[in-house]
Specification:
The protein is mainly alpha-helical and about 500 residues long. About 45% of the residues lie in helices and about 5% in strands. The N terminus is likely disordered. The structure holds iron/sulfur cluster.
């Protein structure tokens, strides 16, 4: 589909700007209005990318519909746009270059390591001038952390350096707003039935999105889930409404209930901005500044605003920076030598463990669960059960609508499974059923008992947790942050240790 043809522009050789599906920025650095008459935008809707890893259909619809809307909006602004549907990027780019014969090709670096390599390979092979600029969807590209931070770079000093560099939540003389850099200790309230969050704003598919849904149904029959119930924002205007809806209705309680989990409230007070931020419909600094404005206006408390801003300007930027330092090779890290195949129930949700059944079922249907469910239920289980990290990572990349390699791999192989040996995070995030029972209401409807360690109805999280401590006691003891966990082993006599290990082994053998 070519939105604007080339014919009347052939007198002069143009420069082409290749815009990727996750670079749909409202202020794209390559879209300088002064250059409009000399440049053509090329966008490629590649079938092989849509089918890749059987990605969740809601993610595919989101990206493709947002690309088409973005192309239409550029055209309305007077840009010439060559929008191509192709088998793959190579074919789309080859055909564009053959038709337009530009004198120069501009690109912005992909956030994904592999695609970035492909861009640079193209650049060296093409017989025209190619220029690749830094990705502007990440503020860390402007920081150079290793130059700014004197000590070893860890999340906390990285986050403070970002706050200072961009002047976020600071008072006079760089004093942090509210008197502290981090209010995490206030952000651990468990779920309780009186919590009644408003559901986030949603959008009925317009004609453009419906056409994309029809294409995804036809072209991606093996991808995850159905195309029904797609309701995500696909334009800049809709994305701004999602941001305002979060700021007004959920940000005030975001902090307090950030770690809570609930069977019938998948979103609670979370923002669900990540799919929009990851494709560029929202920009990181505008989100951060909007949240800070809510604090300054007195409409959201500091623990919520600081906790949210830390997710955006701290964690998101930190994992992106770490990912590019650790690639290639990140995908094959396996610190605990975990080799178990991913159980089938990750693809079906058919398990008697209620927390896993509910969360996996929801993710398969909608492409979403919030970050504590990803970390403290799904990754926790995978780590305790010794599931191969790459298989877990590939599953996360397939089933979430906000999944990209730069964010999934550090969060799953790094933080969630600690398969990097403690580079992204500083300890393995393992927990028994006590944590899930405290923070959620899943255990109330479960066949298992979260309060017993062994026995017929004991929750598998319990014996798997203690089995993990027993297996890796020496290693864990050496980690100062794991001390309290390992100390708990002194309450297990030899017989209980044997029961734990036997029941864990039987359970693991039963996983298919
Ligand atoms: Fe999950 Fe165990 Fe609670 Fe069941 S008892 S919901 S398996 S933590």
């Amino acid at each position: 589909m070519t939105i604007a043809g080339k014919n009347k522009y052939m007198q002069t050789r143009l420069e082409s700007i290749w815009i990727l599906g996750d670079q749909l920025f409202p202020h794209h650095l390559l879209l300088d209005p002064a250059q409009k008459s000399q440049r053509v935008v090329v966008m490629i809707e590649a079938i092989d990318r849509m089918q890749e890893r059987r990605a969740h259909k809601h993610k595919v619809i989101l990206v493709v519909s947002a690309m088409r809307h973005f192309a239409e909006s550029l055209q309305q602004q007077g840009w010439r746009v060559d929008y191509r549907e192709a088998d793959n990027f190579q074919a789309g780019l080859r055909d564009h270059l053959a038709e337009y014969q530009p004198q120069k090709l501009w690109m912005m670096e992909s956030a994904e390591w592999e695609l970035r390599q492909l861009q640079h390979q193209h650049a060296s092979k093409l017989k025209l001038s190619v220029e690749i600029i830094k990705n502007s969807n990440f503020l860390v590209e402007q920081l150079a952390p290793e130059e700014k931070i004197e000590k070893k770079v860890i999340l906390e000093n990285f986050y403070r350096a970002m706050r200072k560099h961009f002047g976020v939540l600071l008072e006079k003389n760089d004093v942090p707003s509210g008197g502290a850099w981090n209010f995490d200790h206030e952000n651990r309230k468990p779920y309780h039935a009186k919590i009644k969050p408003l559901p986030p704003i949603s959008f009925a598919p317009d004609a453009t999105t419906q056409a994309v849904i029809a294409k995804v149904d036809a072209a991606c029959p093996d991808n995850i889930s159905a195309t029904t119930n797609f309701h995500l924002a696909v334009t800049r205007a809709q994305a701004l409404k999602v941001l305002e809806d979060f700021i007004e209705n959920r940000l005030p309680n975001f902090g307090a209930y950030e770690d809570a989990m609930a069977q019938d409230e998948p979103i609670l007070f979370h923002s669900v901005l990540s799919p929009l931020l990851n494709i560029g419909l929202l920009e990181p600094l505008e989100i951060v500044q909007r949240a800070e404005a809510a604090y300054r206006a007195g409409s959201a408390p500091i623990n919520s605003v600081e906790g949210f801003i830390r997710q955006i300007i701290g964690w998101r930027e930190y994992v992106y920076w770490r990912y590019h330092k650790m690639m290639p090779g990140f995908h094959t890290l396996n610190h605990w030598n975990s080799s178990r195949k991913l159980p089938d129930f990750f693809w079906t949700a058919k398990t008697s463990m209620n927390c896993l059944q509910q969360i996996i079922g929801r993710v398969l249907a909608s492409g979403y669960s919030h970050h504590i469910e990803r970390l403290m239920v799904l990754c926790n289980f995978a780590l305790l059960a010794g599931i191969n990290p790459k298989e877990v990572n590939d599953w996360f990349l397939s089933v979430y609508f906000d999944a990209y390699d730069w964010v999934v791999t550090p969060n799953v192989i790094g933080l969630g499974l600690c398969a990097d040996g403690g580079i992204v995070g500083t300890k393995p995030y393992i927990a028994s059923a006590a944590y899930i029972n405290k923070m959620s209401n899943y255990c109330q409807s479960c066949a298992y008992n979260p309060k017993v360690r062994t026995g017929d109805d004991a929750c598998p999280f319990n014996y798997l947790y203690w089995n993990f401590l027993l297996r890796f006691e020496t290693q864990l003891r050496a980690n100062p942050r794991m001390g309290p966990n390992v100390l708990g082993l002194k309450h297990l006599d030899a017989e209980e240790r044997q029961r734990v290990q036997t029941q864990a082994e039987e359970f693991l053998q039963s996983l298919l």
